[in-house]
Write a structure and sequence with these properties.
Chain lengths: 457, 132
C-alpha cells in the first residue's frame, strides 16, 4: 500500500502548474556525482510472517544475559505503569505538538518534564529534550560559543575522562563549525580531572569547560573546584550529568558559587529500557540569561483569553522552521515518546524513590567491586569516591575474558582498553539496583574461573 | 501603511538607518518600516564594543514574536557601543525606531562611507517599489 496521498493526476497537475515535465527535473541542480542513485544490497520484499520470524530469531540470538555493562546506558527497574501509560493512544507520539489547541495534554507533559529536569539539575530553564546525551553535549558546545560573545577562540576544554562516545559525537557534529576541542588529561591514580591539568590554558581565551559528573570511569570529580576554575578564567561551564545520580549528588546549579551555565545528560536511566543503543533521550537546562541561545523546543505555561491556564511552544523565533539556516540548531528535535516515559518514571518514583535507586545502585557497585577485586588478577584502577560504576584492571586482555563470560550468560562490562590504551586491560563494570547479591556472587565466580582457566592455558 | 522616513538619515535596502554624529561616529538602527514588518519586538542582541565590522556584516539580531532577523552593518568600522537599554525595553524599537530604539554606534573606517547609501527620497521610493 502506498502512503502517499497524491494521485498520479494530482502530481501531473502540480508539475504542470510550475511548468516542469517530471519530478526528476526538480533535482537537476544536484550534480550527478552527488546523487545516491539506485539502492544496492537490498533483498527482495519479505512478507509480514517472514519478517516476524526473522526478528524472533535475531532477538533470541541476543539472549538475556546478566548485565554488568553501564558505560552511559543503565539497566534500572522500570515500573510497569511507565510504559502502560506512555503507550496509551492519547499520548503515544514522538512528535512535537505545534498545534497547541489540539495538544494540551502532550504540551503539559513536556512542561512537567521541563519542570522536573530543571529542578533535578538546579537550573532555571529546560528544553523539551534532545536526541540523546551525546548530541546534547554537542549542542551545548555550540550553544556556549553563541552565548559567550566575548570569547573569540571557540575553544572547548574537554576532559579525557568524559565519555569517549560523547567526545566523538561532539567533534563530529561541532568540529566542522570551527570549534576547537582540546583534551584535558586525568590523574592516573584517582581517575579525576585535576585542576593542575588546566594550568596550561591559564591566561588564554577559553570559551567553555566541560565537566562530567560522575565521569566515564564512575569517579566523582571535584566539581566545585573545576567550575570555579572555569568561571575565574572567563569560560562558561558545561556539566554532563547522570540524572539518577542527582538524587544524591549536588545539582550542577549549585556547583561552586554561581553554578554551571549549561547542563546536559542522557535521560535513558529514567524509565527507558536498554535498546541497542537507542533511541534514547537527551536533556538540556540552562540559566535564563542564555535561554535564547538554547536549541530545541521549549513549552511555556500561559493563560487564554478567559484567563484559563494553557500550554504552548514558546521562544520559537530562533528555531529552524522560522530562522532556517541561522537557527540555533538544524539537527535537533524533541524526543517526545521517551520524554513522556521519563516524566512518568520521575512522577512515579518521586525524589525519595529516585534517591533509593541511586543509593541502592551505589551499594551494589561497591559490593561488586569488593567481590571482584578479591579475585587474583583483578584490581580497582582508581581509589576514591565513585557512583555506580568502576574501572577494573585485569592481568590479561579484556576482550577474550568478556567472550568467555558471555558464553556463561554474563555481560561482564565494557572493554575500555581501546579508548584508554594508557590504562592497560581496563574493564568498566556497573551494578544497579537490579542486581542481587546472588548475581554478584555468580559474576565473581565466573570471572574467577575464566581468569584461572586463561592463566592455566 | 505608510511609514516615517526622516530626511536627515541615510538608509539601506535591508532597512537599516544610519546617522552621522558630530563626534565622527555613526548611529545605526532599523527603520520604521522594518519595525512594522517585524511586529512586537521582544529581544534585541547588539554587537559588543570593540568589534570590527565589514560592510553588510550581520552584527545584531532583532527578535519579534514572529521571527528573529539579522541586522547588517551599513558601513565598515569599529563598534563603540551597543544600546544596553534595549535589554529591558526592546519595545523602544517599535515606539521610537529612530530615537531611543537605536541599536549600536560605530567609528566608521571611512568617514564618508555613509554618503553612498540611500537618501530619504531614494529609500521612500524603494519602499514604494517593493510594496505588495
Amino acid at each position: 500500500m502506498a502512503f502517499i496521498p497524491h494521485t498520479a493526476d494530482d502530481v501531473r497537475a502540480m508539475l504542470a502548474t510550475i511548468g516542469v515535465t517530471d519530478i526528476e527535473q526538480l533535482f537537476d541542480e544536484i550534480p550527478a556525482r552527488l546523487r545516491a542513485g539506485e539502492l544496492h544490497g537490498i533483498p527482495p520484499a519479505a512478507s509480514e510472517m517472514e519478517i516476524g520470524r526473522l526478528m524472533s530469531e535475531r532477538a533470541a540470538a541476543d539472549g538475556s544475559p546478566l548485565n554488568f555493562i553501564g558505560a552511559g546506558a543503565y539497566e534500572h527497574h522500570i515500573p510497569a505503569a511507565v510504559w502502560a501509560i506512555t503507550t496509551r493512544g492519547e499520548i503515544y507520539t514522538a512528535y512535537t505538538p505545534y498545534q497547541a489547541e489540539a495538544s494540551q495534554g502532550t504540551l503539559q507533559t513536556i512542561y512537567e518534564f521541563q519542570t522536573m529536569i530543571a529542578s533535578l539539575t538546579g537550573m532555571q530553564v529546560s528544553n523539551a529534550s534532545l536526541y540523546d546525551g551525546a548530541s546534547a553535549l554537542a549542542e551545548a558546545c555550540l550553544m556556549a560559543v553563541r552565548a559567550h560573545r566575548r570569547s573569540k577562540s571557540s575553544r572547548i576544554l574537554m576532559p579525557r575522562a568524559v565519555h569517549p562516545t560523547y567526545r566523538k559525537c561532539a567533534a563530529a557534529i561541532a568540529g566542522n563549525q570551527n570549534l576547537a576541542f582540546e583534551e584535558v588529561g586525568f590523574e592516573a591514580r584517582s581517575g579525576q580531572t585535576p585542576i593542575e591539568a588546566l594550568a596550561r590554558w591559564e591566561g588564554q581565551d577559553v570559551t567553555a569547560l566541560v565537566i562530567q559528573q560522575p565521569n566515564f570511569f564512575g569517579v566523582l570529580e571535584d566539581v566545585d573546584a573545576l567550575t570555579d576554575w572555569g568561571h575565574r578564567h572567563g569560560a562558561l561551564v558545561i556539566a554532563v550529568v547522570n540524572p539518577t545520580s542527582l538524587a544524591v549528588l549536588k545539582p550542577p546549579g549549585d556547583w561552586s558559587e554561581q553554578g554551571v551555565d549549561i547542563v546536559v545528560g542522557e535521560g535513558q536511566p529514567l524509565g527507558v529500557p536498554l535498546c541497542s543503543g537507542g533511541p534514547y533521550v537527551g536533556f538540556m537546562t540552562t540559566r535564563m540569561e542564555h535561554v535564547r541561545q538554547m536549541p530545541g523546543r521549549i513549552v511555556g505555561r500561559t493563560v487564554d483569553l478567559d484567563g484559563k491556564p494553557g500550554y504552548t511552544l514558546t521562544l520559537q523565533a530562533r528555531e529552524q522552521h522560522i530562522r532556517r539556516s541561522k537557527a540555533t540548531s538544524n539537527i535537533c528535535t524533541n524526543q517526545g515518546l521517551l520524554m513522556t516515559a521519563a516524566t512518568i518514571y520521575m512522577a512515579l518514583m518521586g525524589p525519595q524513590g529516585l534517591e533509593r535507586v541511586a543509593t541502592a545502585s551505589m551499594a551494589r557497585t561497591a559490593e561488586l567491586v569488593a567481590a571482584l577485586t578479591r579475585i587474583k588478577g583483578v584490581e580497582a584502577a582508581f581509589g576514591g569516591a565513585r557512583f555506580h560504576e568502576a574501572l577494573l584492571r585485569l592481568d590479561q586482555p579484556v576482550a577474550p575474558v568478556l567472550e568467555q563470560l558471555a558464553r556463561r550468560g554474563i555481560a561482564g562490562g565494557f572493554d575500555a582498553s581501546a579508548d584508554y590504551p594508557e590504562l592497560g586491560n581496563a574493564l568498566l563494570v556497573c551494578a544497579t539496583e537490579t542486581k542481587t547479591s546472588g548475581d554478584i556472587a555468580a559474576y565473581a565466580a565466573a570471572l574467577g574461573d575464566t581468569l584461572r582457566a586463561a592463566r592455566a592455558a | 501603511m505608510s511609514s516615517t522616513v526622516p530626511a536627515e538619515l541615510r538608509y539601506t535596502k535591508s532597512h537599516e538607518w544610519i546617522r552621522r554624529e558630530r563626534d565622527g561616529s555613526v548611529t545605526v538602527g532599523i527603520t520604521d518600516h522594518a519595525q512594522h514588518a517585524l511586529g512586537d519586538l521582544v529581544f534585541a542582541e547588539t554587537p559588543e564594543a570593540g568589534r570590527t565590522l565589514k560592510v553588510g556584516e550581520a552584527c545584531a539580531v532583532v527578535e519579534s514574536v514572529k521571527a528573529a532577523s539579522d541586522v547588517y552593518s551599513p558601513v565598515a568600522g569599529i563598534v563603540t557601543t551597543g544600546n544596553a537599554s534595549l535589554a529591558d525595553a526592546p519595545e523602544k524599537i517599535n515606539s521610537d525606531p529612530y530615537g531611543e530604539g537605536w541599536l549600536f554606534r560605530l567609528t566608521p573606517a571611512d568617514p564618508a562611507s555613509a554618503d553612498g547609501l540611500l537618501d530619504a527620497g531614494a529609500y521612500a521610493r524603494f519602499l514604494e517599489e517593493t510594496a505588495e
